[in-house]
Amino acid sequence: MQTTMTMRSPIGTLCLCAEDDQLVGLYLPDRPAPSGPRGWGGILARAAAQLTEYFAGERRDFDLALAPSGTEFQRTVWHALADIPFGTTCSYGDLARVVGRPSASRAVGAANGRNPIAIILPCHRVIGSSGELTGYGGGLPMKRWLLDHERGSVQPSLPGLRERPAARGAR
Question: pTM, whole model, 2 decimals?
Answer without folding.
Answer: 0.85
